[in-house]
Amino acid sequence: MLTAVDDSQHAAMLTMITGTAAAGLEVGDTVRLTQVHEQVPAGAEGRVVGFYRVEPPQTLVAFETGHAPVLDRFLERVA
To answer: Are 69 and 58 in contact (CB under 8 A)?
Structure first.
């Protein structure tokens, strides 16, 4: 007997790293985008919320418009 499974409610979950990212950023750091990312303009500033252990590495940033995973190479720390 076959049973149908509705997996439409399941989402892929990425593991967040609680330590330091390869780019030397830490949770709570203020960062700036060096180029446009999706609908967030270059120069936008946000705060690091976490890190994704994917290839290439990504940093989860809270911008004014919401949270977005951003490639590490598109971020610079704001002093």
So the answer is: yes
